[in-house]
Design a protein that fits this description.
6-stranded mixed sheet, 6 helices, Purple Acid Phosphatase, chain A, domain 2, alpha/beta, 286 residues, 5-stranded mixed sheet, 20% helix
Length: 286
């Protein structure tokens, strides 16, 4: 690796409370050994936003001795306490508030946050994404303020995909966000939520945007083993490698498309889809 090459670790969906402890020990060792330039964690740090889950997440994340930025996931919003959800939804991030939606500026490369969660939505399923005008404006302003020649990666929780239907959109107003990001020629959009890694070009009216999803480091696997993405940027090309403990090759780890509804198994007795097979029905039925 040359001095100009940047190494980034992209983690997601650790789900403390149902975390994969072997995978987390492995990743922590990789971070300590490899010393990436930054670690980006794209949300769902907890399973049900319980205090003990946040305490475990805070201990693990704040112990990483490298620059870190984290996104807020739908599982990180207060689940049982609706008063807290509406009036203090981010209270439990207090122990790691310095890294929440933190912009990271590396030589020639910036990681810019874009929030996709809301405390409430005018639809029944609040687990899905929603890009508000204010959140998009903050993200675009940060990108527009970068020095000339500096490239940007945008960090979100939900993939910015609307899947063609208004009611079941994976991320409401995600298409509009993608168009604005295409106009700014961002390197890519890093996301989680789906629990399987992917690396696809999403077409927009302003040109394609690269969408890069990380898998999960929890027990809630969908069709691939627990994993994280290793990204390398040499100033010209961004390379993505999906890393996992089972030595499944990156092409086999990457799903070909973002499913319209990402619902990984919720209990040990629910089936898991085979590698490279995005289930048509969630949870998968065999």
């Amino acid at each position: 690796m040359t001095a100009e090459t940047r190494c980034l670790f992209h983690l997601s969906d650790i789900h403390f409370g149902l975390e994969d402890r072997e995978a987390l020990e492995w990743v922590r060792g990789e971070i300590a050994t490899r010393r990436p330039d930054a670690v980006i964690i794209t949300g769902d740090h907890t399973m049900r936003a319980r205090r003990h889950e946040f305490a475990a997440a805070t201990r693990w994340i704040t112990a990483l001795d490298v620059p870190v930025t984290i996104s807020i996931g739908n599982h990180d919003m207060p689940y049982f306490n609706l008063i807290e959800r509406f009036f203090a939804p981010y209270k439990r991030f207090e122990g790691m508030k310095d890294v929440v939606e933190r912009e990271l500026d590396l030589p020639g490369l910036a990681i810019i946050p874009l929030k996709t969660v809301r405390r409430w939505q005018p639809r029944l399923n609040w687990s899905k994404g929603w890009v508000t005008p204010a959140a998009l404006a903050r993200c675009l302003s940060a990108i527009d303020a970068l020095p000339a020649g500096m490239r940007a990666l945008v960090a979100v929780h939900h993939p910015l995909r609307e899947v063609g239907t208004q009611g079941t959109a994976l991320t409401k107003y995600g298409e509009a966000a993608l168009r604005e990001l295409a106009r700014r020629d961002v390197l890519g959009v890093l996301s989680g939520h789906v629990h399987d890694p992917f690396d696809i070009a999403e077409p927009t009216a302003e040109g394609p945007v690269r969408m890069i999803g990380a898998g999960t480091l929890s027990q809630r696997i969908r069709s691939t083993p627990p994993s994280f993405n290793e990204l390398t940027w040499n100033g010209t090309a961004l390379t993505v490698t999906a890393r996992n403990l089972e030595n499944v090759s990156t092409p086999d780890m990457m799903i070909a498309d973002v499913p319209p509804d990402a619902m990984p198994p919720r209990s040990p007795d629910e089936p898991v889809a085979p590698v490279e097979r995005v289930p048509e029905v969630d949870p998968p039925v065999h």
